[in-house]
Amino acid sequence: MYAIGEIGLVVIGILIALQLNTNAENKKLEEKRQEYYTQLIEDLNREIQIFNEFKNEVETDEFAYKQYLKIYEKAELEPIEVYNELVKLKMYSNSFTFNSSTIESLRSSGELILFPLEIRNKLMDLLHLQTEIMKRSERNDTGKNNLLMHLGQIRGASTLIKSLEDHSVLKGYLNIEENLPDIILGLDAAHKWKNLSETETLGDLELMKKDIKIII
């Protein structure tokens, strides 16, 4: 009987040790999960900040673009007037980058499994949406930049026409005015392209912002 009791005590001791070990492991996992939650919320809040900054820049550019369009309300515009208004507009597209390092780290390490299935799915959907937004934005930029590259070959820098005012020989030699119709059409198309593509990106980012708020 004494031996059986001793065995029983040993088994109970082993079970208690296993339970304590399991509890310790669970505590470690929970602490790690909470650390990831904190990192993720910081990342996601930064994404919202990036969106708000991009939105402000796009709205500023859109206002300037609408002001440019108002010049066509004037009768009998001179070509150089249109050109001068076009070169006042910001040509480069507003840029943004996503702050998805924590999600990428969780995915590559396999530790995304620490999160409930619903959150895992939403994080992966967010990552996919961000990838698609970046691809569309890059395609739009490529198209616009190709157009601008061609324009650069027929007009030089945006300041060249003004720089040539006191250089009649060089101005006559380059004869940029002959290309002015193509330059105006190209610049107008490029700015329209920029406006439409940034508006599209803004719409995509609005959807992303809603998803982020749900995840948070």
Mean pLDDT, to the nearest integer, reads 85
Distance between the termini: 59 Å
Number of helices: 7
User: What are the segments in which pLDDT stays under 50 over at least 5 consecutive residues?
Assistant: none
Shape: rod-shaped
Number of strands: 0
Number of domains: 1
Share in β-strands: under 5%
From the alpha-carbon coordinates, what is the Rg to the nearest angstrom? Answer: 30 Å
Q: Level of helix content?
A: over 70%
Summarize the biggest pleated sheet.
Answer: none
Briefly note the structural class of the backbone. mainly alpha
Multimeric status of the protein:
single chain
Order of helices and strands: HHHHHHH
Describe the structure.
The chain has 7 helices and no strands. The protein is mainly alpha-helical. The chain has one domain. α2 runs parallel beside α7 (180-215) and α4 packs antiparallel against α7. The mean pLDDT is 85.
Secondary structure blueprint with pairings:
Blueprint: H1 2-69, H2 79-86, H3 101-109, H4 117-155, H5 160-163, H6 168-174, H7 180-215
Helix pairs in contact: 1-7, 2-7, 4-7
Compact summary:
With 216 residues, this protein is mostly helical.
Features:
single chain; 216 residues; mainly alpha; 7 helices
